[in-house]
Write a structure and sequence with these properties.
The chain is built from 14 helices and three strands. The protein is mostly helical. It has one domain. The protein has a three-stranded mixed sheet, with helices on one face. The longest helix has 25 residues. The chain is globular, with a radius of gyration of 19 Å.
């Protein structure tokens, strides 16, 4: 084993990010994970908390921010062919400001928080969530039953109604609302800060914009006294859903990808910026919750360290390429068993 390279046990026990798994550079089409009928049936339930958050945030925006967000439109479309599982974005069009939160992505995020709450409260490893996202990175959905990528909850053995029962209901609802708040605020940040389309700027500029939108969202969480664990779950899930250095044969290939093809940069630099901001600025301004902010910051920084570690990257690739759906069954000690099985 590589005990020096494994994430902190304390961090894993609470946040559940037990497997730091790599994804291939090619984007996957996850648009058929849920049926259109299922998503439409959940549309009102998924959109309601976003609309409510938008109402609540109005009392916390500055005069300038309110002006920048005038005529805001929030859209909740069905997924389009080629859409990744977590796909949120914003744009301005002829003076109209639009935040797009696809139903598939909101439902996926809700499922992540439900699975996390259920597995943790059941004494099981939430690390299977990370392995699930690695399974979604496989190019050919034909390797899965029915020729389509499987939905998260049944694949992880989580009851469909788990969110209705204590103690899962309270934890999963709080985490979902925190995660929804972060992603919504992040996209609002792009509009408030007048960021350009990725097609019009360099990858370096896009990374700077992503960090700025992260900070806008985190500052708004601070203003509204909103906890950050759900935000950390979302941020990390997005990081694991996109390519990292471990999927490339050389530093040159990775740098070329970052400069030419990476349109939504989730890099270790961004993770460390997130970590530094919550560990320092937010932990100092939210003194009553400083321990929580520092804890989240240190955990995200540790993830960045692992993503930069060559030996860990090799293990990520082994787990990505050789893990099976059987590895997603509810269990404890997932990280240890898979490291022993695939990395030794």
């Amino acid at each position: 084993m590589f005990p020096c390279c494994l994430p902190s046990v304390r961090w894993l026990a609470i946040l559940g990010l037990t497997l730091l798994l790599g994804l291939p550079a090619k984007a996957q089409d996850h648009s058929r994970i849920y049926s259109p009928e299922e998503l439409q049936a959940d549309a009102e339930r998924l959109s309601r908390p976003i609309n409510r958050l938008n109402e609540i945030f109005q009392d916390f925006f500055t005069t300038e921010e309110k002006a920048a967000l005038k005529n805001l439109v929030i859209e909740f479309p069905q997924p389009q062919k080629g859409d990744p599982a977590l796909n949120f974005y914003a744009f301005s069009d002829f003076g109209e400001k639009v935040v797009v939160l696809p139903l598939m992505s909101l439902k996926m995020l809700e499922d992540v928080t439900t699975a996390y709450a259920y597995l943790l409260s059941s004494g099981l490893s939430p690390g299977t969530i990370d392995l699930y996202f690695t399974m979604l990175s496989r190019e050919d959905p034909g390797s899965f039953p029915g020729g389509r990528y499987p939905a998260l909850l049944p694949t992880l053995g989580v009851p469909a109604d788990a969110w209705k029962h204590p103690p899962v209901d309270d934890l999963s609802l709080r985490l979902r609302n925190e995660a929804f708040a972060f992603v919504f605020l992040h996209e609002l940040g792009h509009i408030v800060l007048k960021h350009k389309s990725y097609e019009d700027i360099s990858t370096s500029e896009a990374l700077t914009d992503e960090i700025a939108a992260d900070r806008f969202a985190l500052d708004m969480l601070e203003r509204t006294k909103t906890p950050a664990l759900g935000a950390a779950l979302l941020f990390t899930a997005q990081a694991f859903s996109l390519p990292n250095r471990g999927q490339f044969d050389s530093d040159r290939a990775w740098i070329d990808f970052q400069h030419k093809k990476n349109t939504h940069p989730i890099t270790t630099d961004r993770l460390r910026s997130f970590s530094d901001y919550v560990s320092n600025k937010l932990s100092k301004t939210r003194t009553a919750e400083s321990e929580m902010w520092r804890f989240i910051g240190s955990g995200v920084n540790e993830i960045a360290n692992n993503l930069d570690d060559p030996e860990m990257q090799k293990c990520m690739a082994a787990i990505r390429d050789n893990g099976t759906l059987d590895d997603l069954a509810p269990r404890s000690g997932v990280a240890i068993s898979l490291f022993e099985k695939l990395c030794l």
